[in-house]
Amino acid sequence: MDTLSTKNRVVVVCGHYGSGKTNVAVNLAVDAAEKGETVYLADVDIVNPYFRAADAVSMLEDAGVTPLIPEFANSNVDIPALPPRLSSLISGGDGRIFIDVGGDDGAVVLGRYASLIKDARYDMICVVNMYRPLTATPADAVAVMREIEGYSGLRCTGIVNNSSLGRETSAEDFLRSFDYAKECGRLAGLPVLAHAYMERYTGQIDGGVCEDGEILLPIRQATKELF
């Protein structure tokens, strides 16, 4: 199956809490590293104890990705301590940087770097999940995306469908989300870049369902499953 390609050196991955965007961000970073690129992944999910890229440090390091993790990640401390070196890597580092952003809080922090990110040129991927309560409809998902854009000062460039019910997800649940994702794209005026699903469903997914350049994106479980 195909992998999602991004054209710019800075790749921001955003989405509502519980959308699975950290899983997507980690997998994209690992894929880029496995292709021989120098890769960093910065975690700006400042709210604990939400699942975040800090859960996946071993997976990232094993693949050759350098994780940039806040000092208080996965602790009971909610201090917005940001990864060191983030500004310099955005401005002109020696490789690609993936930035994992969660919800409004992470977007506010990301806004501090907006001018640097714009100067560097970037992709900003919004991860959507129809099975999360606050993004159950395309209109709700796009409203959340617009809030993130407003707080961050950056515009999304594409959508990744990561609709999942955690361990309870079936292949049918995944396929049922395609129309939802397409409507998200239509309302947002953005391309649906990929439909992401857990590797364990490989063989159950019909490879002929994608249209208009969308791809099927098998991903590995990088964080604790939500439920």
What does this structure look like?
This protein has 227 residues and is α/β, with parallel strands linked by helices. It has a single domain, classed as Rossmann fold, CATH 3.40.50. The chain contains eight helices and eight strands; from the N terminus they run βαβαβαβααβαβααββ. The chain has an eight-stranded parallel beta sheet, sandwiched between helices. Strand 5, helix 6 and strand 6 form a beta-alpha-beta unit. It is globular.
Quick synopsis:
The protein has helices spanning 21-34, 57-63, 86-92, 103-110, 114-120, 138-152, 171-176, 178-188, and strands at 10-15, 39-43, 65-68, 96-100, 122-128, 158-161, 192-198, 215-219. The chain has 227 residues and is of the alpha/beta class.
